[in-house]
Amino acid sequence: MTTLNNSNVFSNQEINEIQDSNILLIWVPKSYGGLGYDLQKGLGELQKLAQKNGSLAWMVTLCAGANYFTRNLKPEVAKTIFKKANICFGGSGMIGGSAEKHGDKYLINGSWKYATGSIYLTHFTFNAKITKDGIPILDQNGQEQFKSFIISKEFVKIIEDWSSMGMKETQTHSFEISNQYVSEDFSFVYNTFYSSSNLDKIPFQIFTDLTFIVNYLGMAMHYLELSKVEIKNKLSISKLQQTTSEINKKIPFLVSRLEEILKTEPSNLDSLALEIHQYGSEIVKQLSHQILDIYLNIGLKASQEHNELNKVFKDFFTATQHVNFREK
């Protein structure tokens, strides 16, 4: 089996390859210097990377997904940010802390869990409750208002608290912001876009679910290939092989359906979103059981710390604990 470096960070070579390929910019419009991939092509790139290195693919997926928010920023702001090379957004989807309104600026205070790739990020994204004189501002339905913001890394304190068994290289730590002003121009709303492409029409939940599914698929395929030379129980192998083959056919089919619905029946997006989410939940369970079955048939080699097989196993079962497909 492959022997791995015990370091808990990505190598310079891995980071350089990511930067040279510009894969972090797959969802960034070409007008901002991005690659501007369509959904099908972008998903394919993420899956291929996950088949090689699940941790690296997970960081790229989350950071490229955060870079997607350039579409929600005013064009002049996005263009200014992406004038610099190797821009990498990332952050937290939780609502944490407060944004005290002062004219056209907000005073930010709070902490957020967990920012994938925290030490590699150039900018952090986060959600905060809007307050005025310390009192939450309510919308017309009496709900507390919040906004999404982006802030440069130098104004952020990383809290090193990532202790999961897998995804160690992603350095997915919490972060804290104390008494930092952020301009209104560096705030955004998820469903307000300043660019115009088919990607902008895709509900963010569908976009997120599909990008996660291809990661789980890629990691499962990596585990399958590594385990073929170790396992004697070929039935376990054949089950996982069949499942990954079926998923590989299903994803392009779902993306094609999505594109067709966007063109002809946008009102049906909610039902497709539910279908994709339920499908994702089911395949996470299926892949998990099948990988565990293989793990139990390999023996001690499967649990050895410095084996690539063990790393893929831990990465997969860490990634699938993400709130997206985890049972509440």
Write a structural description.
It is a single chain. This protein is an alpha+beta fold and 328 residues long. Helices cover 43% and strands 18% of the residues. Strands 1, 2, 3, 4, 5, 6, 7 and 8 form an eight-stranded mixed sheet that branches. A hairpin with a 2-residue loop joins strand 3 and strand 4. The longest helix has 31 residues. The N terminus is likely disordered.
- Taken as a percent bin, the fraction of beta residues is 15-25%
Helix content: 40-55%
**Overall mean pLDDT score?**
93
Main beta sheet, described? 8 strands, mixed
Number of strands: 8
What value does the Rg take, in angstroms?
21 Å
- How would you describe the shape? globular
Looking at how many chains there are and whether they match, the oligomeric state comes to single chain
Order of helices and strands: HHHHEEEEEEEEHHHH
- Structural class determined from secondary elements: alpha+beta
Low-confidence stretches: 1-6
Distance between the termini: 37 Å
Helical segment count:
8
Key terms for this structure?
disordered N terminus, 43% helix, 18% strand, eight-stranded mixed beta sheet, alpha+beta, 328 residues
